[in-house]
Description:
Elements: E1 14-20, H1 28-48, E2 54-56, E3 61-65, H2 69-76, E4 82-91, H3 95-109, E5 115-122, H4 130-144, E6 149-150, E7 157-164, E8 167-171, E9 175-179, E10 188-192, H5 198-208, E11 212-219, H6 228-239, E12 248-254, H7 256-264, H8 272-291, E13 296-297, H9 310-317, E14 324-325, H10 333-343, H11 368-377, H12 380-387, E15 391-397, E16 400-404
Parallel strand pairs: 5-6, 5-7, 10-11, 10-13, 11-12, 13-14
Antiparallel strand pairs: 1-3, 1-4, 2-3, 4-8, 4-9, 7-8, 12-15, 15-16
Helix pairs in contact: 3-4, 5-10, 7-12, 8-9
The chain binds adenosine-5'-triphosphate (ATP) and magnesium ion.
Amino acid sequence: xxxxxxxxxxxxxxxxxxxxxxxxxxxxxxxxxxxxxxxxxxxxxxxxxxxxxxxxxxxxxxxxxxxxxxxxxxxxxxxxxxxxxxxxxxxxxxxxxxxxxxxxxxxxxxxxxxxxxxxxxxxxxxxxxxxxxxxxxxxxxxxxxxxxxxxxxxxxxxxxxxxxxxxxxxxxxxxxxxxxxxxxxxxxxxxxxxxxxxxxxxxxxxxxxxxxxxxxxxxxxxxxxxxxxxxxxxxxxxxxxxxxxxxxxxxxxxxxxxxxxxxxxxxxxxxxxxxxxxxxxxxxxxxxxxxxxxxxxxxxxxxxxxxxxxxxxxxxxxxxxxxxxxxxxxxxxxxxxxxxxxxxxxxxxxxxxxxxxxxxxxxxxxxxxxxxxxxxxxxxxxxxxxxxxxxxxxxxxxxxxxxxx
Length: 405
Ligand code: ATP
Ligand code: MG
């Protein structure tokens, strides 16, 4: 093979190739609809980072062209519905061009003494097959860089080549993206967002599954530690980086009154946590209607704390007719923490996030009838109405708080 035409690569010849996942399983019309939303999300996120771009959508891929492919790949790898992204060199369909680009790209990362493999996929099923093409391109690389070894099973370096009708795509890395479904394809949910580790992960998982999100935080006022509300707002701010270009709304409802009233009416302390969680769901049910949300999301988990036994969760769920989604229900704490680190919501020293209302021994099997009697005694509907008059809204965009209403 003549490789005298090997050239240096520059950014102008590169593009970002996007692979999407589960959308393949959809019917053509649904796929078309979902890809439209995905493209809109990509466009919004890139514009939010002031990255000019244009795209093409050959079968099964999205190709994004722009002056700054590395930055484009970074932004796009945080978009739901995408499995991974690769910075590619685009060539003509001529084998000489493909080999030349393959050598140029390999030369930047592949050194003598290393093993390598060439993986070829082709659209046309006539002419040389993938293995034959791989061998030809592989031998061009092998001849150009001295001291290489071929290892198809466990290579030090892999070069991927896709040969499409419109040209070849050559790349050597895949940057993982979150997968899931495009944000906004599955309707809206209201996520109960606390200052803790779990609820931001639950909210993120629902976003990943294609849901538009609105957040609700219940501010316990003097009953909560001094850093609670700030930490919840920080969770909100960080999560907004995952739906770049879309405003994320956080409603904060001041509910000191709930805890004052429980104290005033001498509600058994062991019932406080269950009543508090039911109260939050009641507030959420009000907000859902206003926000057009179809379900509530919490970071509750089976058995993590005394208030989250199966018996208590069923008493909590009973409070309203709205669906309660608990994406972390089966997670070990370690799994949640690992995910929080990846998402960027984990904070090792979050400050004082205590709650003075939590008793030493919360009920592990609250009795629904007793809970209802307590709620009646403390006139819970009045407490709710009072709380609903202490509302503020904080909007976040692209990982920043932009305004408070
Ligand atoms: P997290 O579970 O998010 O780490 P936490 O441990 O402080 O926070 P839990 O007592 O485990 O809270 O509450 C269970 C769930 O109830 C949370 O995951 C969250 O969805 C919701 N929740 C708790 N506190 C609040 C709050 N102040 N405002 C809104 N939602 C809350
Ligand atoms: Mg928790």
